[in-house]
Amino acid sequence: MNMTTERSVFYISDGTAITAEVLGHAVLSQFPVGTNSVTLPFVENVQRAQAVKAQINALCQKSGVRPLVFFSIVTPEVREIILQSDGFCQDIVQALVAPLQQELGVAPAPEAHRTHGLTANNLGKYDARIAAIDYALAHDDGISLRGMDDAQVILLGVSRCGKTPTSLYLAMQFGVRAANYPFIADDMDNLKLPTALRPYQHKLFGLTIDPERLAAIRQERAENSRYASLRQCRLEVGEVEALFRTHQIRYLNSTNYSVEEIATKILDIMGLTRRMF
Amino acid sequence: MNMTTERSVFYISDGTAITAEVLGHAVLSQFPVGTNSVTLPFVENVQRAQAVKAQINALCQKSGVRPLVFFSIVTPEVREIILQSDGFCQDIVQALVAPLQQELGVAPAPEAHRTHGLTANNLGKYDARIAAIDYALAHDDGISLRGMDDAQVILLGVSRCGKTPTSLYLAMQFGVRAANYPFIADDMDNLKLPTALRPYQHKLFGLTIDPERLAAIRQERAENSRYASLRQCRLEVGEVEALFRTHQIRYLNSTNYSVEEIATKILDIMGLTRRMF
Questions:
Q1: Which of A41, A90, A268 sits opposite B99 (nearest CB)?
Q2: Three-state DSSP class for B53?
Q3: Whole-model pTM?
Q4: Which InterPro entries match (chains A, B) (predicted)?
């Protein structure tokens, strides 16, 4: 193959193709190869599969290298069309089905392929996820300190340290109800844990961040303001970390972590169970 | 194996374990077997791996059936400990690495295992995702009709048809900037497309929902209100669908779809590219 060009990659599924993307991306990240990817979800019928096959074949012909295809399709006649394309096709789920069939001693009975779909079985869990999103929005940024009895975790931290995205991710991915409360500049002279939060000590979780990264993030929003100055960021982070230590609030430095990592670390540290969707 | 009890499943990773969960769940959904799962992220060192191995072995002994283990760990000595447990261990990534190595003609060079991690390479994309979340929140529920130039999609629909979770998911998962605008009861007498939205016809996307499901969702929030009555839900949905048709706004009935499915269908229909994180 030609190492100087990017390799084309297709993520294809009869569902959302999110699983194919995530797994294919994980596998490809192990190789020092540049890629150029296209995602094709909802390839559910023969007609669309034939169009996809034509797209793969055309790209193969144009580039002279066969595209990598990570796919997952349940219906055999649709799957077969993809397999007959000129791509290098890897069924992301099937590789694990055969060994599992032997272990379980049961034949697979795939129905519609809806890893991320709604079914009678998961509608209750799904509604709980949506309710968790509503909860996160209603208790974002200290909007309301009522309803903390219903929180599973209450995130604390300075403005722009990652509280809101983390709360939303906890709700969206795991159905966990997270509130968040910001410490603002005016609090800093005499920083205290709000009285309303004291009864919830066991639910509190602090986020902190390197002042340099915080200043860079704040600069994006309010260039050259006091709010975004390194001096102010250092002051706020220092005060808030001291408060976390005084009150023995568990905390995490979010600087080098993605929202997925922050959210899963919080669940792990607090011993909260993930709701699987 | 004993078919009457649930089979224990472990999702284990040196990262967030989100990929292991999603893929394992997809594979298991093909089998008519009840499961009982535990997720163990950040198994990054020998000490934690040994604790996990002990946990797997204890459960195996207690239940008399070996637990299923879907895992992904890069460091060989940590991986080896999991493989030596009494579980039925499936490496979710490795199964695809070998064929890919042959196809690419390059050896894998796994570094830290951070499918959902922050690196110098993806920090820009990550910041764009966080900016997309900020955008979705600032343009949620018609809060602001300014800044529509920056929207990639503007979702329209009645209250509680799924606009907000969809906007947030588009931002969180795909870094897509989505605004949303609600049609409320007071609009219904003379339903019009707001003047401010008319220049953005090509970005508009409608969500609709079955009135029965809508009434059930609204009942959860405002029992026995006019807002939650089936009559009102029917009226609003009918009016809004008519508006979508009049203005040739593409739309989707969200009733039977999850937020993942709605979001990916919108990207697909509108031809928007997903940002891979």
A1: A90
A2: helix
A3: 0.90
A4: Kinase-pyrophosphorylase (IPR005177), PSRP (IPR026530)
